Amino acid sequence: MDKYYDRIIHGGDYNPDQWVDTKEIWDEDMRLMDLAKVNSATVGIFAWSLLEPEEGVYNFGWLDEIMDKLASHGKKAILATPSGARPPWMAQKYPEVLRVEESGVRNEYGVRHNHCLTSPVYREKTAAINRMLAQRYKDHPALFMWHISNEYSGECHCELCQKAFREWLQKEYGTLDRLNFKWWNGFWSHRFTSWDQISSPKYRGENHVPALRLAWRRFTTQQHLSFYLNEIAPLREITPDVPVTTNMMRLYKGIDYHSFAPYVDVISWDNYPDWTNGDNTESANETAFVHDYFRSMKDGKPFYMMESTPSIVNWKGVNRQLKSGVQELSAIQAVAHGADSVQYFQWRKSRGGHEKFHGAVVDHVGHENTRVFRDVARLGAVLEKLDAVVGARTTAKAAILYDRENSWAVDFFCGYHRDRRDYDKVCERWYRAFWSRGIPVDVISADQDFDRYDLIAAPFLYMVRAGTAERIERYVRGGGRWIGTYLTGIADEDDLCYLGGFPGGGLRKVFGVWAEETDSLDEGEYNLVSFGGRTYRAEYTCDVIHAEGATALGEYRTASYYAGTPAVTKNAYGNGEAYYVAFRPQQDFIDDFCGGLIDEMQIQPDAAFPLPEGVSTRKRGELLFVMNFGGEEKTVVLDREYRDVAADRTVSGEITLPENGYLILR
Amino acid sequence: MDKYYDRIIHGGDYNPDQWVDTKEIWDEDMRLMDLAKVNSATVGIFAWSLLEPEEGVYNFGWLDEIMDKLASHGKKAILATPSGARPPWMAQKYPEVLRVEESGVRNEYGVRHNHCLTSPVYREKTAAINRMLAQRYKDHPALFMWHISNEYSGECHCELCQKAFREWLQKEYGTLDRLNFKWWNGFWSHRFTSWDQISSPKYRGENHVPALRLAWRRFTTQQHLSFYLNEIAPLREITPDVPVTTNMMRLYKGIDYHSFAPYVDVISWDNYPDWTNGDNTESANETAFVHDYFRSMKDGKPFYMMESTPSIVNWKGVNRQLKSGVQELSAIQAVAHGADSVQYFQWRKSRGGHEKFHGAVVDHVGHENTRVFRDVARLGAVLEKLDAVVGARTTAKAAILYDRENSWAVDFFCGYHRDRRDYDKVCERWYRAFWSRGIPVDVISADQDFDRYDLIAAPFLYMVRAGTAERIERYVRGGGRWIGTYLTGIADEDDLCYLGGFPGGGLRKVFGVWAEETDSLDEGEYNLVSFGGRTYRAEYTCDVIHAEGATALGEYRTASYYAGTPAVTKNAYGNGEAYYVAFRPQQDFIDDFCGGLIDEMQIQPDAAFPLPEGVSTRKRGELLFVMNFGGEEKTVVLDREYRDVAADRTVSGEITLPENGYLILR
Amino acid sequence: MDKYYDRIIHGGDYNPDQWVDTKEIWDEDMRLMDLAKVNSATVGIFAWSLLEPEEGVYNFGWLDEIMDKLASHGKKAILATPSGARPPWMAQKYPEVLRVEESGVRNEYGVRHNHCLTSPVYREKTAAINRMLAQRYKDHPALFMWHISNEYSGECHCELCQKAFREWLQKEYGTLDRLNFKWWNGFWSHRFTSWDQISSPKYRGENHVPALRLAWRRFTTQQHLSFYLNEIAPLREITPDVPVTTNMMRLYKGIDYHSFAPYVDVISWDNYPDWTNGDNTESANETAFVHDYFRSMKDGKPFYMMESTPSIVNWKGVNRQLKSGVQELSAIQAVAHGADSVQYFQWRKSRGGHEKFHGAVVDHVGHENTRVFRDVARLGAVLEKLDAVVGARTTAKAAILYDRENSWAVDFFCGYHRDRRDYDKVCERWYRAFWSRGIPVDVISADQDFDRYDLIAAPFLYMVRAGTAERIERYVRGGGRWIGTYLTGIADEDDLCYLGGFPGGGLRKVFGVWAEETDSLDEGEYNLVSFGGRTYRAEYTCDVIHAEGATALGEYRTASYYAGTPAVTKNAYGNGEAYYVAFRPQQDFIDDFCGGLIDEMQIQPDAAFPLPEGVSTRKRGELLFVMNFGGEEKTVVLDREYRDVAADRTVSGEITLPENGYLILR
User: Fold this and answer.
1) Taking CB atoms and an 8 Å limit, are C188 and B357 in contact across chains?
2) 3-state SS class at B167
3) Has the ipTM of the complex gone over 0.95?
4) In chain C, helix, strand, coil percent, each to 5?
5) What percent of chain B is modeled with pLDDT above 70?
6) What is the pLDDT of residue B1?
7) Within its chain, how far is the Cα of B525 from the centroid?
């Protein structure tokens, strides 16, 4: 099922449990939600201490009341499981539920998250409260979706986790001999002779074995996932028809969210871009990249933007207010890229605590006569006109390979340019060549299907896991185009180097090049590369390569001893082509290089009219979204007559988009 | 009693206990003290290991000898209690006397301070040694004053302190319900159900609850105070007529020194300004602010400058030597602002250890033929001419509200501009508008009496504790003028936000404005504000406000969406007026704004002649101090004939003050 | 014995234990070693887990095979003891072998080194495995030298070490009274009454007593040394004729390597300079300084360059590739300065782990057709022509006093300019005045013989240990020339200040000056000093001195109150002269000042022809090395006909050295 409601969800995190002593505010909230054209509320995220004030003593009365109010006002309740924070009594009685950091010392009670991923007690407690919630509300008319915990993250180093880690290793590697080989434990005399000798990476223990660090991240991912599966088991049993999601964080690296994708019904994520009051093109590209990353996780199925701010955040160094229009455009972008919701953290500012100055629809002043409230209500009216896109998927012919495990490997290896790996930024740059042309593009991991694409750019693919090289080879042989760059195919899934020449694992023949050396450039230093009659800058990292069958499309112009050697190559392989960009390019090269391929391959953009710099388009269902992030007025010339859905009018010809303006065209 | 001696005390920390094996140096010290015109010595600060070399075995012989020498040379002994550092044997036998830091691990023996504030053993030991000292020296002719411990500071997280903290919380909040409400513990599910669930704030526990952090600072203040009261009990009993002080540190934020004021006879503090060899106007203003902060603590009663350096310090990154004259001017400034002493750390450089390169009257070379010694002796001769000011209080019609608890709240809240709160600097800027005009001004906390002033500037008064808003309202209604700024009246004493519109707690009607939003500006970014025909820069933080009865005196000129809205307002309220400066101004605005009020209210400066930039004046008793901090020659034109007390001559008309020069006029 | 082989050793760290499952690579290694003209391999450094896979179960078969292969290919084996890293089983069974850091918490198993220096278990285990190795290979034809452990470094704070530290203190100080006096424990009440009260310096204990920190460094040095002596005991017993070395690290400050000198047969060190692709003059000077530091440790006896990279390192922020020629010149410099070996870390890149991207002779590609391999082989051919220098010592008439214990004291004292002590850099600058003129110079500690030199520069000799002042006095009286600078003779071996005027300990009369004050200058600020008709910049630190018999050769020109006072003095004392440079000079002053002395004293350079900037020479045996570090072509004009040993030709007159080029002339 691609949609669970026939409207765009508009709502946000709602904490009536903080105002349980002033219930007049609850009624005011309902009145204000109607005014703001909000149709949903996410409740109970951190409510455990109110739901279960003492062990085994439950207090659902307040939640019954809220659920009833929501239902009677026609609001969808997204009901949270409360495991993101636990009551103090639980930590006091069962210290094992608290997390142990890398230091090896158990945390005290405090903040949120902060729970052991393995603790049987905590798993039992979460399953029990979740079961209670499901049983109580399974037939409640407001219940719409489950919101599992909150922003799963972090890791735990307690003894229970160590034991689980060792068991996981045993399953993963089978024998110590195999683990010793794959981790190259002959180095520094680390051959283990008993599983008990292995412990999580830590600064006062083992912190120099990349394979251990990779294994620990994989284990932590699995432990979060199994914690999640334990959470949803009673929900699936009791409310099999209620969809389940858990809110994820941007490009968080602590775990690999891809592992969750098969087990959630809806991908959801919390979107806090770095918007400014000026030109937001860069941030818009970055955010589009992330939308597409999450959208691609379930093959283009619509996702939820579970959190965003209606105004300001409180956790940056300098938390600015934004002009009206910026957050609205941000919301429209989410929908354009596949979101079926626009949700806020938070509905109402909390009165005390750490996040009381985080933006909310309702401010401390308590009424609707604020700029922010008016902005939200105006957006709500627009969203009500977008039923047509709900559930609509997007497909793309091009993809950027952005791989979480590769990002770990890239961060962990010691050598070459250590200060500027910038894997996220590098991938976002390649993404931008497509985004700025209005071409739909997926953002996929190395484990996702390649064959649905005509063109895949896989920058800095340092780690090539078992089977991946074969899949790339098959893809290219079958007619696909593959773009690789410097430091591709260096190591396998355990950061064990490929022998016999890079790019390794069989890719040397696909690319038709051998990368003999990798050079590093200081900040501000550049090599020049000639390509297609122009000269470009190479920065930070440059492979020194030999063409072995590939054709040189570009050469190093200035680079001491390797000037004149190939810098860009193309290799015809089977029915496809493999390109090797031996250096780290700037945006201009990427745009020109990809632009050439796009033209040659005739990959079509969503809009049939040209886009000024800073204007982004995305087609979703029958609607074409045209968004101006350029920080100033922009003019587009439409190719035909359209219906302007938001303004409910017909438009054609030259149209001026104000700063932060947008059009939704049918 | 406002004075304890009829002369300015001139002396400093003296550690004969470090030279107990070379008593010829003691005799040399007496000779040199006479030469330096020093009339006092502070002894025994860190002498515990010599006074009580083994538990219960006392060794007072050396101190008897020193006290006798001091008496026979006519020196006043300021006798310290030794609790600032303890003997190793005590830490070894009673580990509980050592401090536990936030990490939760007990410190080992070392450095100084480093003691638990709660430990019954340590309190017993300090009371016992203090009693011994009092009994032994109660009738000694040299005994002049008690110096309790040294620079009380820091905190302890041991179990004894946790228990005391919980008891303090129980007394403070009565019930857990009340604490849960005031700390807003519904947020992140933190409702406590037992007092035992609460622990001190720490990085690996709870560190995100501002109310807990505030409570911990208050508790720590009280624990230091009760430690102090335990120290002085035997002294008060045995030597009821000997005044008691404890030396405080500049604008130290770890505790609120105001709590000590009722329990010390003399406020004393340690003054280490950032003097340079050039223009010292900025440092002079900052230091004057601190002098007035401490002077105001006991309603203007003279204080002691217990420490200062005669030359150089050793703890900065770059420890410069200063030209002769700079330290002399610094000492004169202290006296001008209410100090009845000029005291040094230290009399003689220690031979080893951490502070051996800190400046001293007597250097390692050991004789009087040094530049520093000569400078001190010359100053000593001047101080001997200032008997007239001893005991003289200063009164002021204007005050700056600088509140320690507010400074904590300002540091702790998360949001808006987090990098540039700068509460000290902000208050010093408002102070400077008065200081640079030679107008006496007090520096008071929010708990001190407002009614004695005509004008109070209370910048950035984020925290408005229970009762404070009412007192401000009464003050303005009664005819006072009150200046508030951006982010005023946001939260109560537990950092719980005021609802219903800022400035809260009832201040909205006093100011006649509602602050809807607070914007933040990046470093180097400015909004322009028009006021009185000029344009000023607003930086870092700007409230967006609505006048609700107040008159706009100034407007934002450039600030995206809030350009044209009020930036400075004035509200007639009762018989007084309340001003709201919605932004963070630079010095020029503050000078012009306050200058206008000063002129209008006809608040008079101490000097009846105009002051060039960098020249500061302060009247004390019958003497007018004129001090040149401007880093170059300055000329003043006297309004009449004066007696130049230091030079013992009559002066009038145009007088040239050399760089770092001063006049003391009667 | 000054030489152990009649050729320059050419080889490096070789880890066949990492490739034990792919023995075909072992055979390939032998083939490649022949091609690279490598005649030696250092084996077994981290092989313990393969040598003793279970406690008491030994596995020498693989090493037998490797030793046999090396022998049959005519390679010298430098056999390592494996204590640099231990097998996991040992840490698991005997946790005491692991190190305890300053935190007081025992490390977990991990990384390398990381062992307790005191643990009886670890000492027993290392002695046992060393004995096994010696017994097994004592008669093996490949066995050439012992390589003990690896880069001894770090410290351990466990209870065993604390106990050993207290015993060491007792031996060192005899009584607590003496220790309390020397550590000036009267300060802050630290008089110890039991040895058990003393513990190692730590951040959460005692960290403000410089004498404790000095003692701890000395103890740590001794503990490393006794660990080393325990390691070599069985080797000396079983293989009395096999030389022993241990590889040291550049200017590592954790221990004083001088203590090892009497107990190693060959000094060896690991050389990783900061070479660039441009002008390397600065790095060449720094590296020459270090070569001479190690060379001087055993009175000029040839040393081994045990490690260097043939290409790149992996642990910097930006790891650059270098042009061919740079590493070759670096190797030649080592030989010129006294090295009898050119050795690499590493022969073959490891496939996994932390150092897999560190440069190696054989890359992951596995064959000889790489730029790096060819460079190594070409150098190998040159080294084969240098038999003549093997064993040749260098003597010098000038020395730089660079003292490890003084470097500790300089780092530990609190005061004056704390941000820019730069002891290494300061000494390297004085060294450069000689190096750039091609004058041989030793780099000695304060404990080495002064009398063999005509001129000694001892910059920033803050610590003057017992007996040193007397030795300096005797040296100057006997006709030597001594150069001292600011902050000379301040404290003794326990950082206890000299009383009675600096420079202390008797040096005041030798220099004929009294330093009254020490001033500090901010970054970018300078005083001007006139000397010899020119003006120079003084930076960071300036003594204010009085000539007491010395002649002023230079004066401060701009320095507020001390302008016009002496800045450079010369004192005729006995038959010699003592110079005092009161400030921290830049290179130009040092060059001119030392140049004047060199000319006056007629100290002769190695080359009889003039050297362009960036060209360095060093004579060794009968060969004169001429090396171009200037980053561009340089021309020298030879004074006579020479034999060019590397090119095997006769040269004379004007010779052009290419960038990174060199000549070896006979």
Assistant:
1) no
2) helix
3) yes
4) 35, 25, 45
5) 100
6) 75
7) 32
B84 to chain C: nearest residue by CA? C188
Residues 6 or more apart whose CB falls under 8 angstroms from that of C593 comprise C433, C531, C568, C579, C581, C585
- In chain B, what residues touch A49 (CB-CB under 8 Å)? 185-186, 189-191
Q: What's the rounded Cα separation, in Å, for the pair B66 and B26?
A: 8
Which of C475, C581, C585, C460 minimizes the C-alpha distance to C521?
C585
CB pairs < 8 Å spanning A and B: 171
Rounded Cα gap, residues A294 and C651, in angstroms = 71
Contacts of C46 in chain A (CB under 8 A): 187-189
Largest Cα–Cα distance of chain A, in whole Å?
76
State the Cα–Cα distance between residues C335 and C358, nearest whole angstrom: 23
Q: Report d(CA A492, CA A463) in Å as an integer.
A: 5
Which of these is catalytic: C155, C307, C328, C428?
C307
Of A437, A443, A440, A438, the closest CA to residue A424 belongs to A443
Give residue-wise pLDDT tens across range B267-306: 999 999 999 999 999 999 999 999 999 999 999 999 999 9
Write down which chains contact chain A via at least 3 CB pairs under 8 A. Answer: B, C
Using CA atoms, how far apart are residues A264 and A247, in angstroms rounded to an integer?
Answer: 10
Dihedral-angle region of residue C111 (phi above 0 means left; psi in -120 to 50 means alpha; beta otherwise): left
DSSP state letters, C108-133:
PS-SSS-B-SS-HHHHHHHHHHHHHH
Q: Tell the burial category of B518 from Cβ atoms under 10 Å away from its Cβ (0-12, 13-18, 19+).
A: buried
User: For residue range B351-362, what is the model confidence (pLDDT) as tens digits?
Assistant: 999 999 999 999
Q: Tens digits of per-residue pLDDT, A523-550? A: 999 999 999 999 999 999 999 999 999 9
Task: Look at residues B24, B48, B374, B34 and name the one whose alpha carbon lies nearest to residue C499.
Answer: B24
Distance CA A302, CA A268 (A): 9
Residue A581: exposure state from Cβ atoms within 10 A (0-12, 13-18, ≥19): buried
Q: Write out pLDDT tens, residues B585-599.
A: 999 999 999 999 999
CA distance B486 to B518: 8
Residue type, C307: E
Is residue B151 part of the annotated active site? The answer reads: yes
pTM, two decimals, is 0.97
Position of tokens 């002043």?
Answer: A365
Looking from the CA of A419 toward its CB, the CA atoms found within 13 Å total: 11
Q: Are B529 and B535 in contact (CB under 8 A)?
A: yes
For chain C, which domains are there? Answer: 9-157+243-389 (3.20.20.80), 398-601 (3.40.50.880), 615-665 (2.60.40.1180)
d(CA B488, CA C499): 57
Dist. CA C333–CA B315, nearest whole Å: 43
Three-state DSSP class for residue C334: helix
Residue from A96, A231, A286, A307 carrying the catalytic annotation:
A307
For residue C559, pLDDT beyond 80 = no
In angstroms, the CA B189 to CA A353 distance is 11
Neighbours of chain C (3+ CB pairs under 8 A): A, B
Phi, psi of B493 (to 5 degrees): -65, -15
pLDDT in tens, C26-83: 999 999 999 999 999 999 999 999 999 999 999 999 999 999 999 999 999 999 999 9
DSSP secondary structure string for all residues of B254-306: SS-GGGGGGG-SEEEEE------SS--HHHHHHHHHHHHHHHHHTTT--EEEE
| C-alpha span between A367 and A363 (Å, rounded) | 7
Contact B193 A112 (CB under 8 A): no
Active-site residue flag, A307: yes
